[in-house]
Specification:
By secondary structure, this protein is an alpha+beta fold. It is built from 13 helices and 21 strands. GO terms for molecular function: FAD binding; oxidoreductase activity, acting on the CH-OH group of donors, oxygen as acceptor.
């Protein structure tokens, strides 16, 4: 198979890599490739930083390996190849009365990517992480394929779920789907006047799905104001998909300047009446709202953006207040700032979630944004929290053991699975995640 040279980037467009890309179309082709010349596997590269980059090396593009291998309509057990996207799974299974139990914020994420990052969704407080619904997976290394399950190979399973592809190439997975009442979501939207009201509303919510948008530019009594969305899947057929749009080129930085963002946020808050409102939305619109604007990352211009995402443990949610104060006074926040409640569920040693609150904020790529993101990371660590490696572009390897106490055990198992380091990526090298110390 002939490799194609290209300049690749993470979704944030800050970090880049010169790579040779191989794109197999069949499992047999992939198996021959890995046996001869193992390399990290990548999907649609929706990780924001360098988790799917391999500077000066090769990567295996899995996106053509996107077939449904088997499906039991009685039990909802589905086996698919790792290149299948979550948007395609939802569109395929919902009309049959089933849906993926956990959906990330974009339908462009692949099954392999969801496993490698043990992604979470708007229902993590009830459903846990994606990896907790993986029944088994086929893992491909230089010595061939093997079945990995939580019962028979628990250590390897836990190092693979959330393991950033370091134990081998994820070829396919058996997933346990959940019943789906229909193709629509009933959404209750309410304005929140500040962070205290937000946290109280999350605590009181009994909705299956919940997510908050925060005006990260607001200060004073309005600090942390925003919109809380609570959703339930309901019966009904979705209307034909609306028109999607594309950002054709990197846009000028004026669009994400502080005055523009403050104006946008004020208008966006007012789209929800003071008394709140109920809406019915198609599944894809609710779960993947940004997918209707293709290449939306170009809105941040040629220099790209950083996303800071942390989780703060239960009992430490008050640390959100000084974080939001620093973000607001910096004038660097974009309109994309999200708050979610997480439960304790996590499938892997390096999985991000913990019971508490997670905050995600985008910053245009500027030197002052880098300094702010690192300050926020330290604040999260001091509160007992951690950052999401799927979003990271800036972290320090010295913080990994404090955020991820099983990092040493993870490194040991990964070294056993891949002793020659074939599957290392830029992020793994940058953060020294395979160093047992």
């Amino acid at each position: 198979m002939r490799a194609r040279h290209q300049t690749s980037h993470g979704w944030g467009r800050v970090l880049h890599a010169e790579e040779e890309v191989l794109r197999p179309e069949r499992q047999a082709m992939l198996e021959r490739l890995v046996a001869k010349d193992p390399a990290p596997a990548v999907g649609n590269r929706r990780s924001y930083g360098d988790a799917a980059l391999n500077s000066g090396g090769r990567v295996i593009d899995m996106t053509r390996l996107d077939r449904c291998l088997s499906f039991d309509a009685g039990t909802g057990v589905l086996e698919v190849e790792a290149g299948t996207t979550m948007g395609d799974l939802l569109a395929l299974c919902a009309p049959l009365g089933w849906m993926p139990p956990v959906l990330p914020g974009t339908g462009e994420a692949t099954v392999g990517g969801c496993i490698a990052n043990d992604v979470h969704g708007k229902n993590h407080h009830g459903a846990g992480s994606f990896g907790q619904h993986v029944l088994s997976l086929t893992l491909l290394g230089k010595d061939g394929a093997r079945q990995v399950t939580p019962g028979e190979t628990p250590d390897l399973f836990r190092a693979t779920l959330g393991g950033l592809g370091q134990t081998g190439v994820i070829l396919s997975a058996r997933l346990q789907l959940v019943p789906c009442k229909g193709e629509m979501v009933r959404v209750r939207e309410r304005r929140m006047d500040g962070i205290a009201e937000f946290l109280s509303a999350f605590d009181a919510s009994r909705a299956s799905y919940s997510v908050g948008w925060i005006d990260a530019t607001a200060q004073g009594d309005a600090l942390g104001r925003g919109i809380l969305e609570e959703g339930e899947v309901i019966a009904g057929d979705a209307p034909p998909p609306g028109r999607t749009r594309r950002v054709p080129v990197a846009l000028p930085p004026l669009l994400v300047s502080a005055p523009a963002v403050r104006l946008f946020n004020a208008l966006y808050l007012r789209r929800v009446p003071e008394a709140g409102r109920d809406r019915e939305r198609p599944l894809a619109d609710f779960f993947f709202p940004l997918d209707r604007l293709h290449d939306w990352n170009l809105v941040y211009g040629k220099k790209g953006f950083h996303q800071f995402q942390c989780v703060l443990p239960e009992g430490e949610e008050q640390a959100l207040t000084p974080m939001l104060e620093r973000i607001a006074e910096s004038g660097l926040a974009s309109p994309l700032a999200v708050l979610k409640r997480l439960g304790p569920g996590r499938a892997g040693m390096m999985s991000f979630p913990m019971a508490g609150m997670t905050l995600a904020v985008d910053f245009p790529n500027r030197p002052e944004a880098e300094a702010l993101a690192m300050e926020l990371e330290w604040m999260a660590v001091e509160a007992g929290g951690r950052i999401y490696l799927a979003k990271d572009t800036l972290s320090d390897p010295d913080l990994m053991a404090r955020m991820y106490p099983e990092a040493g055990e993870f490194a040991r198992i990964v070294t056993e699975a891949d002793p020659k380091g074939h599957f290392q990526t830029d992020l793994v090298r940058r953060l020294k995640l395979r160093d047992p110390r």
